[in-house]
Amino acid sequence: MKIINIKTGIEKEIPTFNCNICDCKFTEQEGGITNGVFGMLPVSFCPTCLSGMFSMVEYFKGEEMTKKEILERIQNVLNQDVDTESGDLDLLRHDLENDIIGSSDDE
Ligand SMILES: [Zn+2]
User: Do 44 and 14 lie in a common domain?
Assistant: First the structure.
């Protein structure tokens, strides 16, 4: 992309980046991510796709609530003295508890 200074008439080349998701061209000034990396993959995301990605992350983070809800239901069942002979439900409760504790430690 070229930008011309009206006062001086000097042309300036501004680097543009291709968004890896929607393939649109955008400049660093517009925001988004330029020259980012996903592991070893170089990535660029335009402002629109970047904000979309944040919404997606928030959506997936919402699963944590679901795990807590599942745990609550399992606890309700266990409170009624219901479980398999080998205590599978109790094991599942234990795993879920660790999972929920582990994921909140990351924050
Ligand atoms: Zn995009």
Answer: yes
